[in-house]
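Researcher: We're teaching a course module on how sequence relates to structure. For the next exercise, students receive a sequence and then see the predicted structure as tokens, so they can try to spot secondary structure elements on their own. Here is the exercise chain.
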Amino acid sequence: MRKCRIALASSIVVVSFPVFAQSSVTLYGLIDEGLDFTNNAKGNKAYKMQSGDVQGSRWGLKGTEDLGGGLKAVFQIESGFDVNNGRLGQGGLAFGRQAFVGISDGALGTVTLGRQYDSVVDYLAQTTVNGNWGGYLFSHPYDNDNTDNTFRVNNTVKYTSATFAGFQFGGTYSFSNDTNFANNRQYSVGAQYTNGGLLVAAAYLQANNPSATASGAINNGGDENFVAKRLQVFGAGVNYTLGATTVGFAYTNTYLTQPLSSAYVGPITPAGGATLSSLRFNNFEVNAKYQFTPAFYVGAMYGYTRVSFDASNGRSHPAFHLAGLMADYNLSKRTDVYVQGAYQHAGGDKTGSVLDVAYVPGAADVSSTANQVVARVGIRHKF
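Model: And here is the predicted structure for the students to work with:
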């Protein structure tokens, strides 16, 4: 009887081995923690410990299975969390950063389904500082263009092409899961071209009634950047690396129809009881990074945002200036320490709304004036 059990166990091992040999699952993660100082948070100085400014703290699983004939099954689940208290991020979702499964072909591309990044994040964001090496503090006002991943998109079908002579493209469609087909849906397209040290990228996104429902493309109360009737984002950017120096430029245009509020600063209400019909953010960014040694770099950026504020009592043009600086040193291949700072000035026309005061994403609160400074020292570990 014992010999039979041994033979059966051996058969299972032999049969199972090819499956394990053609599959892989990787556990990975990142912890980003630091101390932030805000010089003016509603008139007060603020010191706080904050998780995930340069990169959101997370852990995840990703894997592939070889299906034969060049096909692979792929999956990824990724959970964001706050190092300070252990709470889940992205509105308390178990896998709020990503959760998808799909099929990949080396020549035809990849199709995935689930909660994913849109094309602005996939292609355009990497040409900005906040979407690349700098993080949260260097976001355009209220992360209006989502280049800092304020929201992911649910119920999403995504296509990503293979790379042809440095060119890659893709797109997403996110179902509303509502009887009203367009109520809280999203779609986006993007593309990039790389050649040596050159990267050029562009993207477009539209969301109808973002955050109008809890089960639609963008979460209601979870991780939206604006509540509005319609959100449209388009833009393009370029980065060029020559030796130790990388320079870049990015332009994004965000248009909101009937905006009600921002997840960062709350209601956007004009003065005198007027109603706000639309908001447009024109964001211009220049950035540069110099790699002094393989372990140490310094980067800087300047951003200018001109806003068109269309209310029932007229049109006005607020403006924001943002300057940022960061230094990063790698203690090892997986652990680095960094210091960074950002200064924002809110200028241009006055609106009688929250747009008249400065707010650096990541600050303890809005400033009581047109100026705000946020500084941070942090440590990041990848596993």
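Model: If you want an answer key for the exercise: Residues 1-21 have pLDDT under 50 and may be disordered. The helical segments are 2-21, 119-124.
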